[in-house]
Specification:
Layout lengths: L1 E2 L8 H15 L5 E4 L10 E4 L17 H19 L4 E4 H15 L3 E5 L3 H7 L9 H15 L2 E4 L2 H9 L8 E3 L14 H8 L7 E5 L8 H14 L4 E5 L4 H10 L5 E5 L6 H5 L4 E4 L10 H7 L4 E4 L2 H7 L4 E3 L4 H12 L2 H18 L2 H15 L2
Parallel strand pairs: 1-2, 2-3, 4-5, 5-6, 6-7, 8-9, 8-11, 9-10, 11-12, 12-13
């Protein structure tokens, strides 16, 4: 596996990489992840890293001008590892990984699987790497088209991603399979609400809304703070637990909005600690605004039995099915009303909690996903 990212850093893309590798290993595959120098190793999967780069320490998602030389080092490490590991197949994550993989396969003639988690151009626009009118848009679109067509096969983390590749990038349907994210339901399950709240210093009596994920505008965190301000005016007793990073600017913004008193910020939450913290909540939220990427946090919410409020999008409906509470995309006041309505209906919360956990087990477990991925591998091998 090629992972051009600071793996593992407790965020969605990394969870997909880890869970795929872990579940494949359990099925008898031998997996080696080749990645950047940053991040930490996770149990059960071999990881090989590029040499340390002392001045580069970015763990957050998004593009960077440092990426080109990091990826050159990653290509070198991939070529070196192929010689010793002698893989049957290269599984490349993200567009940079697929580009590196395509170069490697030109030397070693190995099948290349591209794990597509969203548009390269779309992600760069979402992160503000360049504007919609920039000349870089055409450059990135050309590069993206080239990379998409170099892979022997593509798996996508959402049905909308598959449709985008086929309809907008003209990739033949036969070369694209949907393989949405999943969840390890043996790790993510409802824990002790009392223990979680005791550790977090949150009263058991209050209604608590939780968010777990990256902190940036396209994840909807700016909008979420505005929603919290709106809720505080009518229901000041409701509390919010916001888990993720980088959170410094959002702590300052919460103070400016006068809502810091109803919010507990945790900073980065380690993957193995997330289930306990999530179990403190009565309701989870995902105000993600980006429409070209998957939404991995929803799987963890469901597995922990959390009813979830999210914007109405094909990706969110694909994951939550009929068990989500949906709001018109980008509508902050409606999002606030949905939170208030859900917290005022204990029967709804109980019902959705049970249904969400059941759906996570029956539809979204990594055991199911690894069987699908194993089938894709076998079709690709000679």
């Amino acid at each position: 596996m090629i992972a051009p990212t600071p793996y593992f850093s407790d965020r969605g893309c990394h969870v997909r990489i880890y869970e795929e590798a872990r579940s494949l290993t359990e099925r008898g595959h031998e997996v080696c992840i080749v990645t950047y120098h940053l991040g930490r190793d996770m149990p059960g999967v071999r990881v090989v890293r590029i040499p340390p780069i002392p001045w580069y320490d970015k763990l957050e998602a998004g593009p960077s001008w440092h990426k080109p030389y990091l990826d050159i080092l990653l290509l070198w490490k991939v070529l070196s590892e192929i010689r010793s590991f002698r893989p049957h197949l290269i599984h490349a994550h993200l567009h940079e990984g697929a580009l590196i993989g395509s170069i490697a396969t030109s030397f070693y003639h190995l099948p290349l699987l591209f794990d597509y988690q969203g548009s390269l151009t779309g992600e760069s626009l979402n992160h503000g790497f360049f504007g919609a009118s920039s000349l870089l848009v055409k450059l990135f679109k050309g590069l993206e088209r080239f990379i998409d067509r170099r892979a022997d096969h593509i798996i996508t983390s959402s049905a909308s991603g598959r449709a985008e590749l086929i309809d907008e990038w003209n990739i033949p349907e036969s070369r694209v399979d949907g393989l949405i994210d999943g969840v390890d339901t043996g790790v993510f399950y409802p824990r002790s609400r009392s223990e979680a709240r005791r550790e977090l210093g949150i009263s058991e009596q209050v209604k608590l809304v939780v968010y777990l994920g990256l902190f940036n505008r396209y994840q909807g965190v700016d909008l979420l703070l505005e929603v919290i301000a709106r809720i505080k005016r009518s229901a000041p007793e409701i509390r919010f637990l916001l888990m993720g990073f980088p959170d410094h600017q959002y702590r300052l913004k919460a103070e400016e909005l006068g809502i810091d008193g109803v919010i507990t910020f945790t900073g980065r939450v380690p993957y193995d600690q997330a289930p306990l913290y999530l179990s403190a909540g009565d309701l989870a939220v995902s105000p993600k605004l980006a429409s070209t990427e998957a939404n991995g946090k929803l799987f963890n919410y469901m597995a922990c039995g959390l009813p979830t409020v999210a914007f109405d999008s094909p990706i969110n409906r694909e994951i939550l099915g009929t068990d989500g509470i949906y709001v018109e995309h980008g509508n902050g006041p409606a999002f606030a009303d949905a939170i208030l309505g859900a917290l005022g209906d204990d029967n709804l919360l109980t019902s959705l909690s049970q249904k969400s956990r059941t759906r996570a087990i029956e539809v979204h477990s990594w055991e199911c996903r690894s069987r699908q991925l194993d089938s894709v591998y076998r079709r690709m091998l000679p």
